[in-house]
Design a protein that fits this description.
The complex is a heterodimer of chains A (228) and B (405). Helix content of chain A is 33%, strand content 30%. Chain A is an alpha/beta fold and 228 residues long. In chain A, the strands form 2 sheets. Chain A has a 6-stranded mixed beta sheet with strand order 6-7-8-3-9-10, with helices on both faces. Chain A has a 4-stranded antiparallel beta sheet with strand order 2-1-4-5, covered by helices on one side. Chain B is α+β, with helices and mostly antiparallel strands and 405 residues long. Chain B is elongated, with a radius of gyration of 33 Å. The chains are: A alpha/beta (228), B alpha+beta (405). Bound molecules: adenosine-5'-triphosphate (ATP) and magnesium ion (MG). Adenosine-5'-triphosphate (ATP) binds next to strand 1, strand 2 and helix 1 of chain A.
Amino acid sequence: MTLIKVKDFYKIYQMGLTEVRALNGVTMEIQENEYLAIMGQSGSGKSTLMNLIGCLDTPTSGDYYLDGVNVALMSDDELAMIRNKQIGFVFQTFNLLPKSSALRNVELPLIYSGIYSKEERMKMALIAIEKVGLGDRMHHKPNELSGGQRQRVAIARALVNNPAIILADEPTGNLDSKTGVEIMSLFDELHKIGHTIILVTHEDEIAKHAHRTIHLVDGKISKDENIK
Amino acid sequence: MYFFLENLRISITELWGNKTRSFLTAIGIVIGIVAVTLMSTLITGVDNLFDKSMSFLGRDVVYVEKYPWIMGDDYWLMRNRPQIDLEMASKIKAQSNYALVVAKERGRNGDVTYGKQSAESIFVHGVSTNYPLVSPIEIADGRFFTESENRARSQVLVLGYEVAENLFPNENPIGKEVFLRSHRFRVIGILKKMGKLMGAFSLDTQVILPVDSYEKIFRTQWGMRRISIKVPESEMDNAIEELTGVIRVLRGLKPSEKTNFAINQQKAFEQQYSMIKMAIGGTGLVITIMSLIVGGIGIANIMFVTVKERTREIGVRKALGARRNIILGQFLMESVMITGAGGVGGLLIASILSYVINAFVFPAQMSFAVGFMAIALSTFVGVVAGWTPARKAADLDPIEALRYE
Ligand SMILES: Nc1ncnc2c1ncn2[C@@H]1O[C@H](COP(=O)(O)OP(=O)(O)OP(=O)(O)O)[C@@H](O)[C@H]1O
Ligand SMILES: [Mg+2]
């Protein structure tokens, strides 16, 4: 079943007299439970595309159907609901709240999805944080954690609400290869239990975990291949 | 409610994390709230004082005197007025339809001694026998003098409460002889404790004697002299008009001549008091409004800074599904917490000051309603000041906010 349908996506930034075409006509479909890697050089538009898929940003032009619904017609609050319930986003720069503990960071999406019972939220956050193997660090603040540990917190936060789609922008970008492998096995597992995984990477090793790769060059898809 | 509690938690953490800043920001509100609560406390205090003081004068008594109680620069025009002739009293009583009681009063300061004890510079008050009918004095012990004692110019007197205490610490004064201006007077009564009039002039430090006896020993024209007239309270204005006419005739004034005496009444003080109240209220209101505006602007400013500083946090929250109103509520809450804390602090300071005023200056209590109003007012300022910054936060574009450095 088609989960994501993107048609003629353009994202154009007007920088004074010059315009930057971050996305220059992207059309693609992503099926349920796909495992997709988006590749391309720095500045090719990978993050831009991810932000659009994640309903964080709006395209300059183009249509986006998420689960059959036209995203352009949704209100800001409806988009917030989508981001909260359907999409788990792992940012390139983590974006954890610096003053809150790991557990509290993971709890955050649950607060906004209106799970009123603190106990319930804590239970769910604990399960998520243990899934990424950080049970013993949950009371640490982000600046008391290593890069890999922060990445795990970010992943735990993305999956705590059990979203259908998990978007990860360079989830191993800042990590050594051993930690990278550990993080990737987490995504493999999430894929296995039914999540749709879309991740951005420029490393072939990482891309090999995915079942399909899309290559972006200057905001356009240059190659779209199934590898498994 | 649930998001309310959640926002409350965030606000407390944030404000606690910026204690100094939060504190400094709240000062304007503290001053505003102190001003407004203290103002209303003072006004109720003045009200109480007014009511209490006025009971000494009596609402249904008018006083014929040389000068009006409240006068401006026209003192110089009045100083050549003739003295009040107390002998008019019986004629006034006879000719006025409104005068129920007409009493004579004279008075000046003097010393009273008993053995080695002396009461210096107390008010020596010569009055007619009917004086108790125009005054709230009450006899605690003994009796007031009689008309025959007055006519006989008997040397008898009634002691004010404090004078009695001072001259006779361990004795019963009744029947004892004291000296007033080297004249021997016999004590026949003691007054009940009256308290102070407007915190200054005390009715307890006086001695009362028959007015004829007074005139026997003080021959000068100097000192207080007035005719106190009790009239029906509901007919006050008519009574004053009639009395003015009666006295003008008694003084032989022609219609073209100006009235050369004053008929005073408590109402004159009421006007004076409402002016004092307005002055307190006006000053308090100006200080309140100014400091709340300045404080509110300060808070709005700080909230703008806070929103700017926390742009990324706002971006994260929105990316994770925080709806617009939740972000709005979060920052409104923070602003209201600052002003609310300022309000509570101000209220606390104001209650301490009220307590001090109550203990040392005059009776004044802060009312519950005023406290409630102060909190409501500071909350209101918080909402107004925080509104625009909170809206700015709520309207941030998630991706712009996340990218903000
Ligand atoms: N807010 C913006 N304003 C102007 N230009 C932008 C903005 N965001 C992105 N761009 C431009 O769009 C292009 C694509 O950016 P994007 O972040 O999508 O690249 P990327 O493929 O994720 O690169 P990287 O691998 O370095 O993360 C870049 O040329 C970038 O300069
Ligand atoms: Mg990128």
